[in-house]
Design brief:
133 residues, alpha/beta, five-stranded antiparallel sheet, three-stranded parallel sheet, 2 helices
């Protein structure tokens, strides 16, 4: 995932004119308006960057900041708050692990994007047997 900020440089003072996100699979969303050609060029260029980089874009500059792959989010308890939390976490790149002692809550239907679902005997012992990392 890449965070993009467009800065207008033709007139003083410098000002931010848009922000967008570009996912690793090429999905682009946000306020920045790019032509098809500019977007294709950007998609190919960002694959080679590992730190914040600036690109020239007509009368503006595009600051591209790579967002490192996030780690694992452990949801201890599969209640009503965990469902949207898991969805959002998966959307932004977390590996999601759901842990609960209730199979009717911790299941694939409620958590389709979870990489792992663990049903345990007692929620109080939820950290036993889980390898963090």
């Amino acid at each position: 995932m890449y965070y993009l900020v467009q800065i207008k440089v033709k007139d003083s003072p410098l000002r931010i004119v848009g922000r967008s996100l570009l996912s690793h699979d090429g999905i682009f969303s946000g306020e920045i308006k790019l032509s098809k050609k500019q977007l294709e060029t950007l998609r190919s260029e960002v694959r080679n960057i590992s730190s914040t980089t600036m690109f020239s874009l007509d009368y503006s500059r595009l600051v591209v900041d790579p967002i490192k792959r996030l780690q694992t989010l452990y949801l201890i308890g599969a209640g009503h708050v965990a469902v949207p939390t898991a969805q959002i976490a998966a959307m932004v790149g977390f590996r999601v692990v759901v842990v609960d002692d209730r199979a009717e809550f911790a299941n694939r239907q409620r958590f389709p994007n979870a990489e792992q679902i663990e049903i345990i005997k007692r929620l109080q012992s939820s950290f036993q047997g889980i390898r963090f990392g």
